[in-house]
Write a structure and sequence with these properties.
Immunoglobulin-like; five-stranded mixed sheet; alpha+beta; elongated
Length: 309
């Protein structure tokens, strides 16, 4: 299974590029390691059988600017960024600890039992503003600032000190002081490994109250959706927005085009071949297989003599 493409839209000269360099389209692993998010497939790619439709996590938009999570939905023929063919009317879920309980009669499989939803519009987008504790690392930006300080210290060859000038929330002050006491950096060693253990402890202590999970509903003939889990924002509202695309799982034969009338041969519910009907009355002296509507032949297929080639 192909990994989601990355569409890094940060403008040239943005301050975050000094910490996280521009991520190429093929840089999913780099971005996932930085943010800690996960691509879930159990209710999407893994659930769909051959020839069945589901919403795949096609790409991730990395965007600086508004304090908004803005998932996008695309039709099967969409390529690139922004999606060339947006898909409207798709129910998109956003879950985080403390959000509303999902109704028991809500359609489709769910990655979480709590969440809120919105419908994609003509641009294929819907969105939600940030809530409290939405940063990566959850409840405090102190953990992120620690990682940033580590990178800057290595680059500048100086010992570091944590600063509240890089977006720490007011409730992070006590945690910042605690971390500053825990961690030391030796500029002569150029070794960031020293930061991993205390950073992991800080991440664990802060819990996961800020992470979000996104997925689509299973309506419109879709059996499910991939999920985008443990999502948060970083620094100057730099947000990884999921881009979902409607796809048909390969290996199930070619479905007929959407326009026209067809005779379809199904094997285990999957189309393996089809025959297009010709509209109108058969002409000439040949014999035809007719499709009658209200007692009148509206479509036909001519029989051909001999053995199929």
């Amino acid at each position: 299974m192909a990994k989601p493409f990355i569409f890094d839209t940060r403008q040239e000269g943005h301050g975050s590029l000094g910490v996280l360099p521009r991520v190429p389209e093929s840089g999913y692993d780099t971005l996932a390691d930085f943010y800690g998010f996960q691509h879930l497939t159990q209710h999407g790619a893994d659930r769909a059988g051959k020839g069945e439709k589901y919403f795949e996590l096609f790409g991730i938009e990395l965007k600086a600017g508004p304090a908004v999570f803005q998932p996008m939905i695309a039709l099967p023929q969409s390529e690139g960024y922004p999606p060339s063919h947006p898909m409207q009317g798709v129910l998109v879920w956003n879950s985080w600890p403390g959000s509303e309980t999902i109704p028991s009669n809500a359609d489709g499989p769910h990655y979480k039992n709590v969440g809120v939803h919105c419908w994609s519009d003509v641009t294929g987008s819907c969105g939600w503003g940030y809530g409290g504790g939405s940063h990566i690392g959850a409840c405090s930006s102190a953990t992120l600032m620690l990682a940033m300080a580590a990178v800057m210290a290595e680059d500048d060859d100086v010992s570091f000190s944590l600063s509240t000038s890089r977006g720490a929330m007011p409730d992070s002050a006590s945690m910042l002081m605690a971390l500053q006491e825990q961690v030391r950096y030796d500029p002569l060693r150029h070794d960031i490994e020293d930061f991993k253990a205390p950073l992991a402890r800080a991440m664990a202590a802060s819990g996961n109250c800020g992470v979000h999970t996104f997925w689509c509903n299973s309506g419109g003939g879709h059996v499910g959706s991939d999920g985008f889990d443990r999502v948060g924002w970083w620094d100057d509202h730099i947000t990884p927005n999921p881009i979902f695309r409607s796809v048909t799982k390969s290996g199930g034969g070619t479905p007929p085009p959407v326009d026209g009338v067809y005779l379809v041969d199904l094997v285990d519910g999957v189309p393996v071949r089809y025959m297009e009907w010709t509209a109108g009355q058969p002409v000439g002296n040949g014999e035809a297989l007719g499709l009658m509507v209200d007692g009148k032949i509206e479509f036909y297929n001519l029989w051909k003599p001999g053995t199929p080639e």
